[in-house]
Amino acid sequence: MLTKVDHIGIAVHSLEETMPYYEKALGLVPSPVEEVVSQMVRTVFFEVGETHIELLEPTSPDSPIAKFLEKNGPGIHHIAFASDGIEKQLELAATNGCRLVHEVPIEGAGDKLVAFLHPKSTFGVLTEFCQPKGE
Amino acid sequence: MLTKVDHIGIAVHSLEETMPYYEKALGLVPSPVEEVVSQMVRTVFFEVGETHIELLEPTSPDSPIAKFLEKNGPGIHHIAFASDGIEKQLELAATNGCRLVHEVPIEGAGDKLVAFLHPKSTFGVLTEFCQPKGE
Predict the structure, then answer these.
(1) Contact check, Cβ <8 Å, B20/A96
(2) Residues in chain A within 8 Å Cβ distance of B82
(3) Which residues in chain A are closer than 8 Å to B3, comparing Cβ atoms?
(4) Do A26 and B82 touch (CB under 8 A)?
(5) N or C, where is chain B less crowded by C-beta within 10 Å?
């Protein structure tokens, strides 16, 4: 079952240029900036209720986020839903025609299991499921 | 102050074609379908935690959603944050360089006051503030 919108991932050219909008114009508080080497991004999170806004800045032209920015410019990249049973969630999606980017969950940032659905099978929305490990 | 992600608006060509993905593959429960004549859209909402996913289908080629679909194809259209003080929220955004689509809040669906920030001033993310009337 999906329990909440865990985070909304937003592709940006530069964290430093974008963070003042979220901090000052929206009044949100940033987490420390972290680098996710495997995804070739630097990220920062802003908490809003039970959801986080995740800004994603590419650290290499080979990063998926760099390719997204080249094609679309900055903007919303993906929605991540928290699930209380990620394997069953993936099975439900696959049974109902979704193309899975990950057949089994992989380890994501923040000690979570994560898996993506391909946007060609989700009406244009890159969709992530995530679940804290051990839950 | 922003209190939660109220909803995520997603542009779709057809509610009937898209709803089975949200209902069956994601396991979410739809609201009744409604038409918002002023926006030239038909909408349906799916609750996930404190947030709703809003699907938006244009009812006319002149609908802003029809224009979005023509340019981008189906996908995420906007993020709406709930605010506990929408006038102050708009003032904070304007003071910090945001371009306001609505200088003062307008009446939205569901008996709410709503106002949008222009995506050119929010790093590509069409951003809505909303507040239930009378709060």
Answers:
(1) yes
(2) 49
(3) 48-49
(4) no
(5) C
Query: pLDDT category, A134, cuts 50, 70, 90?
Result: confident
Q: What are phi and psi of A120, to 5 degrees?
A: -70, -20
Residue ranges of domains in chain A, CATH in brackets: 2-132 (3.10.180.10)
Q: What ipTM describes this predicted complex?
A: 0.95
* Chains A–B, number of C-beta pairs less than 8 Å apart: 132
For testing the chain A interface, which of B76, B89, B92, B121 should be mutated: the one with the most A CBs within 10 Å? B76
Q: How confident is the model at residue B91 (pLDDT cuts 50, 70, 90)?
A: very high
* The pLDDT of residue A9: 98
Nearest to A36 by CA among A64, A8, A17, A16: A64
B125, B81 contact by CB (below 8 A) = no
The CA-atom distances, in angstroms, between B43 and each of A74, A92, A119, B9 are 26, 25, 21, 9
Is residue B38's pLDDT more than 90? no
Spatial CA neighbour of B35 closest among B59, B66, B10: B59
Closest CA to B1 of B109, B102, B131: B131
CB contact under 8 A, B124 and A96: no
Beta strand residue intervals within B1-135, DSSP E:
2-11, 34-36, 41-48, 51-58, 75-83, 106-108, 112-117, 127-132
Taking alpha carbons only, the member of B135, B1, B124 closest to residue A48 is: B1
